[in-house]
Amino acid sequence: MRASLMQIAVNEGETVQARRGRVASLVREQAGADLVVLPELWTTGAFAFEEFAAEAEPLRGPTYEVMAEAAVEAGVWLHAGSVPERDPDGTLYNTSLLFSPAGDLAASYRKIHRFGFDKGEAVLMGAGRAPVTVPLPATTLGVATCYDLRFPELFRALVETGAEVLVVPAGWPERRRAHWTLLARARAVENQAFVLACGTAGTHAGVPQAGHSIVVDPWGEVLAEAGAGEEVLTVDFDPAEVARTRERFPALKDRVLGLETPRRDAFQV
């Protein structure tokens, strides 16, 4: 299976409309890949909070239309990153779109864990509620977004529903780049799955981006890693390695689920 992670630069001098067109052209150039992945909020920038409401679009809005057409022209499965989606009730969501080679919307995922604590995305956007997996001909994708990477419970839920390749578009800041690599490898090892983590380049509202998109195998080995600038990271991998890894080292069988929450006084003497 061939995957191309498109580490798009989000720069303030480029309009959203111009970036959509430029990225669609780049997607079309990936004909021959099986899966193409774009980053989180590449239309606006993940830290351009003031742009979320202004650039929010319905699920089947301008980005949907352009990316669906690009998927058809390239003949690829396309994880089109995420966009600020405006629900009919007015709520904003950080929503990922995944298209089949026929241009059909195979799945959408509203980011569950919103970053910002008491500001930014955490207060401007609603939270998704359900994990999303997507069956492809060769494997099953589990979908997460950026800050989700810090919450292993979500990835366990994806594995429970069949995920073998975990796809994580992000707008990860340069100042926490070490966490980006560490967490991508951790999620791969603990779930015995491939991790395809696609970041952005450039600067989002004054926040330098980490870049360094990364592909990790089920043993935690880095198969490929991008640099800091805009680039397309292409890697060939065998999804069947997931089953082989889980058979050779069946750690997932030893999970203990449904643990009781300890009482606060359990260890008092």
UniProtKB/TrEMBL annotation:
Its domain of life reads Bacteria
Q: Is this entry keyworded Membrane?
A: no
Look up the coiled coil feature and give its residue ranges: none
Q: Pfam families under this entry? A: CN_hydrolase
| MF term (GO), any | hydrolase activity
Query: In this protein, which residues make up the domain named CN hydrolase?
Result: 1-239
Q: Which UniProt keywords apply?
A: Hydrolase
Family named by the database record: Belongs to the carbon-nitrogen hydrolase superfamily. NIT1/NIT2 family.
Q: What is this protein called?
A: Carbon-nitrogen family hydrolase
Please name the source species: Streptomyces ziwulingensis
Q: What is the lineage of its organism?
A: Bacteria, Bacillati, Actinomycetota, Actinomycetes, Kitasatosporales
